[in-house]
Amino acid sequence: MVGRADPARSARIDADDQRAFAELGVTVAVDDDEETETNDVAVWSINWRTVEAFLACATCWREVATMNRTIRTGLIYADVDAMMRRRGFDDIAFADMQLMESAALTAFAEVAD
User: Fold this and answer.
1) Over the stretch 32-88, which tens digit does the pLDDT of each residue have?
2) DSSP 8-class letter at 2
3) Quick one: DSSP state of residue 70?
4) Contact assessment for residue 75 and residue 32, using Cβ atoms and an 8 Å cutoff
5) Distance between CA atoms of 104 and 41, rounded to whole angstroms?
6) Which of 46, 36, 45, 39 is closest to 14 using CA atoms?
7) On the CB side of 31, how many CA atoms lie within 13 Å of its CA?
8) Ranges assigned E (strand) in 1-113
9) What are the C-alpha distances in Å from 68 to residues 32, 61, 64, 65, 112?
10) Largest Cα–Cα distance in the chain?
11) Closest alpha carbon to 57 in 79, 86, 89
12) Where are the domains of the chain?
């Protein structure tokens, strides 16, 4: 058990864990389902509040429509500011969010190509 991204979800059991349990006289099955945590992303606890703020701004993106797709051009800061103030986020979280916005725009561009 290496750990888990969401403490509410159970961790995957691998062969090493199975052996450790066997030494205690407990039989457990190895979790062979690779789909169990493929969408999990590790987030350090110090960054969790920023991730919450970023996810709360899911509807705050400015988008431009083209003939075949929409392109996100950045966050609408007036909307972001209102959301963050209403939810009690500070100015540091706003600055962190701008870093996440930049990384997200890079990722969106990679997916579009």
Assistant:
1) 765 555 567 778 888 888 999 999 999 999 999 999 888 999 999 999 999 999 999
2) -
3) E
4) no
5) 14
6) 36
7) 12
8) 61-65, 70-75
9) 40, 18, 11, 8, 11
10) 63
11) 79
12) 1-42, 45-112
